[in-house]
Amino acid sequence: MRDPHRYHWHDQGFRPPAFNDLVIYQLHIGTFFGAQRARGRAKFLDVLDKIDHLVRLGVNAVEPLPVDEVEFGPSQGYNSADYFSPDPDYGVDSTDAALDEYLVKVNRLLAGRGKPSLAKADLTGSMAQLKVMIDVLHVYGIAVLFDVVYNHAGPFNGDGHGLYFFDLLANPNGAGNNNNDSLYFTDQSVAGGLVFAYFNQDVRQFLINNALYWVQEFHVDGFRYDLASEIENHGGSRFCQDLTGTVRFVQPSAPQIAEYWNDDRRRAVIAPPDGLGFDLAWHDLLREKLRGIIADASAGGSGPLDMQGLGRALAFPPTDFPSLFRAVQFLESHDDVHVGSRARIPALADPSNHRSFFCTSRTRVATGILLTAPCVPMLFMGQEFLEDKQWTDNPDGSTNNLIFFDGLDPHRGDKQMQDFYRFTQELVHLRLRHSALRGENINVYYANNANRVLAYHRWLERLGRDVVIVASLNEFTFDQPNYRLGLPQAGRWLEVFNSDVYEDFGRRQPHGNGGSIFADGQPMHGFSTSAGIVIPANSILVFAKDAGDLGRVLIKSRLVTTIWIISVRFGPLCGLKSDISRGPRSARTGLMQRSIRPERYLVRPWPAGWAAPCGLAFCILI
Description:
Elements: E1 24-27, H1 29-32, H2 51-57, E2 61-64, E3 68-70, E4 80-86, H3 98-112, H4 126-139, E5 143-148, E6 185-190, E7 193-196, H5 201-218, E8 222-225, H6 228-233, H7 237-250, E9 256-258, E10 280-282, H8 285-297, H9 307-314, E11 327-330, H10 345-349, H11 357-371, E12 376-380, H12 415-433, E13 441-448, E14 453-460, E15 464-472, E16 478-487, E17 491-498, E18 516-519, E19 529-535, E20 539-544, H13 549-553, H14 560-569, E21 592-594, H15 613-621
Parallel strand pairs: 1-2, 1-12, 2-5, 5-8, 8-9, 9-10, 10-11, 11-12
Antiparallel strand pairs: 3-4, 6-7, 13-14, 13-21, 14-15, 15-20, 16-19, 17-18, 17-20
Helix pairs in contact: 5-7, 8-9, 8-11, 11-12
């Protein structure tokens, strides 16, 4: 017996991000970081060693692979055996001297945010250590989304303490056994495990109680539901509706994300009775199109690429999802880049040399499109710093497939990895700084297959905050003459991001537009004006009418470009939100266009009138 309220939390006042503000980071506890990760048995508390890495990166939610106890490990976690028990392999035994070192680390992190310290007794047991991990992540502003497996359990191979054996009515290893005799399961199988008996109200309630257990006792902020499509395929539609409705009633802010691959994708994210009631769902359209184009580009040469198809994937048809922000988009995941599966993006971008210009630049374009797309973006561990190796949950003592954090060592590391981490970090913060990038509207107004160039416009309805993204997978720079593209407004546009800057960062002169362009040309591409733009080879450029939330405070300053450079170089920013309505906008026509008001619950506006201390500091500095 234990007291579920024994742990004293420090996360009072923490609120998870609004759905459309989420930037998710998927990781595997056992191999993410720590002394035992080469055995697949790193610890919950080891995640805290990389909390500064995650904070600087700018992600605001982590999504660990399942943490339930399994019969046999190491494991990805999708073979759960005990649903109310965190895997003890991820815990540090109370007799282990290393627990004292973990306590020092935890208290140092808490003190860094002005929080009271913990005692060693607060870290006793894997349950307590999981709570500490979640608590400290919350203190540092990062939500925790649990990956849960309700489509099956097991496989079971003889652990007499596993869920399968609670009733002892069936024996999975017995001759002529009938799994329908099990209290929880049927004779149907998914991924080698047994499907739950969704027709049984007590079984449905057991699984719903498990989700509430994580929310109420462990302060989990939301869920990713593994293979929800298989739940439906085995008679669990009503269970999905009951599950999502109950969790939403208890924790309305909790994002509920479905992995749903049935033909009618829309069904996952619409309300009952017609849908299953999930808030968001994984989507593969952008992933497949981007991976395909990057693979085609890796063949070299100047042949055409399907940029028009990529544009359609960015603004996929409204009949698919009711809102673009119901889609969680990604290029890599635990499934995609596991050993024996698909290549990681750098290996796809240049199979012959994972550190070449072609590799790094194409990978930047792919990552840049993901992080400027209308969706909830997700990164897989290591993707943020050019990890090129597939991963495994069972390294068996080898480091060959572990993510290479040593590459970020400023003295002995890999400069390309460091440059790419800087690129991803600043792009994530750009997304968080420019609200149009987190909005719903997109107009893909230019796609040239022959030139390998794509341009799309993002904005907020009635508020503007216009942003234009230009992506090129051409192997040559367009600068003689400049590439002319339509723009939605005349006048000065800030070049707020240029991926070419991050190629051998600080050691070469990047191609670009010197911080701004001026739109005063003839009407083009459905807009009333245009500008000539230098487009570097294999690059993604972002232009905006303002420098983001900080920039709107200082937009009238003639030093705005200097301020922008300082703000980018010195890390994450927050700032005041002072949006104002504007007059009639220029026509928005193009190849693909979406303009839907975001649902109210997806929008959590910044408090008006509050300026970030960092913004004030920059004013004083200048």
